[in-house]
Amino acid sequence: MTGLFKKLITAFRGGAREVGEAVVDMNAIRIYEQEIADARNNLARAKQDLTGVIAKEMQAERDIKRINTELERYEQHAIDALNKGREDLAEEVAVKIAELEAERGNHEAAKKQFHAHVERLKDIMKQTEATIRQHERELAMVRTTESVQKATRSITDNYGAGATRLLDAKSSLERIKKRQMDFSDRMAAADALDKESGSGSLDDKLKSAGIGDTSGGSSEVMARLKKRAGGQG
Amino acid sequence: MQSINQVMEGVLALDEESRLGVEFDIQPIPGDTEVIQVLVNGQEELPIFVTASDDQILCICYLWSEDEIKSDSKVEMLESMLDMNMPMPLSSFGRIDDKYAIFGAMSTGSTAQDMAVELTMLHDNAIDAIDALLPYLK
């Protein structure tokens, strides 16, 4: 699998974008999408096949077990026959045993094949999964590159060819800082102004000198009212 | 998956507390690709461009172009940018054509609040970056 990083870096370094060439071939995205879809299909099919072959392997295993059980039984019969002096019967059983052993041999060979097939399918699935991961990663890179290209085109078209900003970085920063300074200067000045010459501050000064509106609150009011009440009472 | 228009509308609808008092000005840029220009606190010197890939939203703030860099200090500048890339919250340095930029990438499922934080952070990072790397510019 080719490393897409390398390709992109080479393309960018070659100034492909500056020249206005598309770094990303419009087909590339379609191809990636198609390959991912194909890979997913292959993966699904392999999974299905795998299920089938595992089932066959298990069936072969069951057949082997079944035959082994029968073999035990017939061998016992043969021994019993020999013990009873019935060599003719024992020979018939021997034939049967040989047949069963041959059948078992077939099942064992089949089981081996199924097992090998299972391993192969598992390998294929791992590879396909890795391919899908890789393609999706590369597709994301290609899609992002394309998005940025398109956006940049819109932006430069809007701001005028060759310029994506009104000013250079230095001037921008100076303007921003100046504005921030003006703002905090204005805030500080307003604060100072209010402290030094605001009517609010004068009232404070008068009040602390005991001049003007020196109402001391409710206790003074009560004292005044009581005086008047006393005068009238 | 929402469009960037929807997310930005959400940003404008946030109450002041949710946007930490930051003001956003939004303007779509004409063209066949959806690109929205965002000004943070009215600062038109550093617009942020918001665009979407199909699985992510990109916020891009241009810093300076190649011809603004002092040629003999370019390597040091690049090293500093790489050094700053990790500590810089949410944003990363990048280069688009001959223009250096700071950008942030977010999921298309991001909330308006996420977007507000991203844009504010990006803007502040941009100012800080220009301030810090100014010695490398002509």
Describe the structure in your own words.
The complex is a heterodimer of chains A (233) and B (138). Helices cover 84% and strands 0% of the residues of chain A. Chain A is built from six helices and no strands. The longest helix of chain A is centred in the middle third of the chain and has 73 residues, at 87-159. By secondary structure, chain A is an all-alpha fold. Chain B is an alpha+beta fold. Chain B contains three helices and six strands. In chain B, strand 5 and strand 6 (99-107) form a beta hairpin. In chain B, helix 1 crosses helix 3 (112-133). The termini of chain B are far apart. The model of chain B has no long low-confidence stretch (mean pLDDT 92). The interface between A and B is medium-sized, with 29 and 34 residues.
Give the gist of this structure.
Chain A has 6 helices and no strands. Chain A is an all-alpha fold and 233 residues long.
Low-confidence stretches of chain B: none
Inertia-based shape of chain A: elongated
CATH architecture of chain B: 2-Layer Sandwich
Find the structural class of chain A using helix and strand composition.
mainly alpha
In the CATH scheme, what's the topology name of chain B?
A: Yope Regulator, Chain: A
Shape of chain B: globular
* CATH fold name of the largest domain in chain A: Helix Hairpins
Whole-number total of structural domains of chain A: 2
* Strand residue percentage of chain B: 25-35%
Greatest contact pair? A-B, 29 and 34 residues
Strand element count of chain B? 6
Residue fraction in strands of chain A: under 5%
**Strand order of the biggest β-sheet of chain B:** 1-2-3-4-6-5
Low-confidence stretches of chain A: none
